[in-house]
Specification:
By secondary structure, chain A is an alpha/beta fold. In chain A, 39% of the residues lie in helices and 19% in strands. Chain B is 7% helix and 57% strand. The interface between A and B is large, with 44 and 60 residues.
Chain lengths: 150, 352
Amino acid sequence: MGLRRLRFAAWVLLAWCAFLPSLASAQGVDRSLRVVVNKENKLASLTTDDLTRIFLGKKTLWDSGTRIVPVMPEEESPTGELFLSGTLKKSVSQFRAYWKRLLFSGGGAVPKVFRNHDQLLDFVARQPGAIGIVEASAVDDRVRVLEISN
Amino acid sequence: MRRSLAAALLALALSAPLSAQELMDRIVINGYTNFEFSKQLSAEGPGDKNGSFDADQFDLVFNITVSERVRAALDLSWEHGTATEDGRGNQAMEYGFVEYAVSDMLKLRFGKMFTPFGVFNEIHTAKPAFLTVKEAASLNKNDRIVGGGFLFYPRWGAGIAAHGDAVVGGKDLSYDVLVANGEQQEANPFEEDENTSKSITARLRVDATENLRVGYSFYHDRLSSASYTTLQSHGFEAELSLTRFRLLAEVAFGSLGRVSGGEQRQIGWYIQPSYHLKGGFTPYMRFDYVNPDRSLSDVDGRDFILGLNVELSKNFQLKLENNAFHGGSKSTLASLPGQGYHEFKAALVLGF
């Protein structure tokens, strides 16, 4: 097969893949979890797709221009795993592999992880651009709960 | 490179008085290290016959948030047990750039960067970011498989880049465009261009479905070489990620224009399936293929890799693999018994 034919075949395959119907379906955030932001953040709600993009480093700025700082519980904690598998649709190893590629190629910093909810809430309360994932029972008035829509 | 880091830190320090806590929030330090062993198993071949340890690499990666829209990124690398007093090893700034975010769809970058072509080039030094001991040589360092070819693109570039993420038609896509000096004959390509032509690299990636990402890369440069006029390459990539199964594949087509007329046309491709088992075990294989000159027959080379990646602890991996190299009857491997050789490779890799 000639080089041009091979290249043409690669183009056709690529175009076909790009127009595949998306199988992604927004599943939202598990009811036992809450998405919290800094109290200065005026945003009322966020879609699941945008939440996913934030934690995958694809959305890095709030509409106000403030840099988004995503934070979450440790990936292997029950809360962390629930968020990764339920919302981001990634296993712990897939999530780490994804971020290692982005981080080490200069694409940005990995979401900060916290061992306990109290430290996480403290951080969100301190950082104007922060957005965090916590257990619903841990939320207090240091932060504001963001409504997530599908 | 120390100056770059010092300048970024100075800019950060001068921007506003910061508390220690704020400074820690703004400067994130990560890194990775890679320790390797390789031993040629066949009696003859160009591999490592003695079996050698290699303190391959130790890198520190800095992410510095200077302001809401400005970020600096830096990778400082010490290779092969750097000891400058003895002239051993290598110390390098793999990349060092400043990013100004106009929006998520347009981030401008200035400095030295990895050429954004295909899957492996931007992570070729970061061994924790991939399963195998080495990056796919068919597209990134094809002389490791067979001689007679050329690089599809230079691995680094100094210049101006644009990067963006967007959603189009319900699909996530990202793009990169880099305008750089390109490869040079004599001058430092990160300081000076020997001709007026700039190299252009472009890459577009689309998340076709939740599990499938596809991409296209392009590179073009006019060369100042006495023998060659232009270098142009096209690359296609696909990555399928199911729950435990992953398939990665790429193909690149390159052409090197000759001053005497005509061009050398090269093709490289690989396919890499892997399966993530419980307990952190991931067996993998990769088949790399290179034909350095498509106008000639039997000059091609192949590398068939069978390996196992074991996650010993969080972000700490052991990699074990056999590389079976084989060449065509007129390739640079043709003189070897069976026209090929086997090499065992192992690595301990940590990302932090």
